[in-house]
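Quick check before the chapter quiz. The format below is the same one you will see on the exam, so make sure you can read both the input and the output lines.
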Amino acid sequence: MSVASAARPAETLSTRRYPQPHRPGTPPPRGVPRRAAPIGLYVHVPFCASRCPYCDFATAPATSRLRAAYLRALGEEIAREGETLGHPRVDTLYFGGGTPSLLEPAEIAALAAALRGAFDLRPREATVEANPATLDRARLEAWRALGVTRVSIGAQSTLARGLRALGRTHQPQDSAAAVAAVRDAALDVSVDLIFGWPGETVAEWEGDLAAAVALAPDHVSCYPLELRLDSPEEAVANWPGGGWQVLERWRRSAADAQPDDEGLAVLYRVAERRLAAAGYRHYEIANWARPRKRCRHNLRYWRNEEWLGVGAGAHSHLGGVRSANPAALPAYLARIAGGASRLPDEGADAASDTAMLALRLADGLDLARYRTRFGPSEAARVVTALRSLDGTRLLRWSGRGVRLTARGRLLASEVFLRLLAEVPPAGERVGA
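Here is the expected output.
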């Protein structure tokens, strides 16, 4: 499918319509306090050339009319949030999707102008997600001019059979070409892989890993194929025709042909072994990195630190409060046009979220730090919940805290469910 660029893309996020650009290093406007600590910034670009049948993220077809309307609204939200937050410093930046690499150079430049006008933009790390078939020199130069330092390439598989099984439209050779282009632009490379696709064998997964390692990326992510069967809004909200019925048929058929839980565990252990042998450190359940190449922005999520998310379906965590934008583009565009703020996430709870997210990391949960952040009562709840798993070989305790064992990484959902049962969100507790 061809991807049309937005009409007059250079003006899509024109700063003429927004407050006077804020220059890095200068104070925010009078009366608006600057945030004391830097934040992370996530920018959602939902457009895709086609819909992947397993994907539950907020995506949309990349029509020129929809792109123009969305990028105008995104620019308005960026300007408004920058003003409201006092033009905070941004030290990690992440462009996710969707397929941000579909944006044209002029659209990227306009987005850069909007971001620099709203924030003190000095990221130590800036990532853009890319489809292997959508990277070219002009786009990479535009992203680099914005400040991007790393590209996350959604290879998903290096095998033709794997790509067909996942409903992907790019070819195996596209991933190698994309990695070479990113290296030519002097940027870091991360490669995403999916395991557990219908009919996948251990030998095929080993071949996938070997091919990915041969590309010498700085970072590798390996995710099991997860197929929701409950009509997730994000997967269908913005796509005409077919709707959930088409996706549901594909997903049920794919789920029937997937490896079972034990088969997935075998594939996961293969990834652990092969990537460790290749020199990658396993620092999070699904992520491996070369020394000093961990994803700083994603570490913000796993440490439950502060970040702002802009765009359809984007989530934020600021001042201990989680909030989100609507995933459906009509609802998102209407809220921005009406000047409405993000929607609060009523089910979120900083204390339980922080414990679960920390356990995803190889470093685990530092109980002393957790006690300082949330108080002794919350820390005692977490310890009691986790101690109830003693004897299961899922956790390893140390002087400062607790982390998942190799077995625990395979069965992490059991640990998280126990935490949710024993340490429910504050609003769900008796007497809360």
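If your answer matched, good. The chain has 16 helices and 17 strands.
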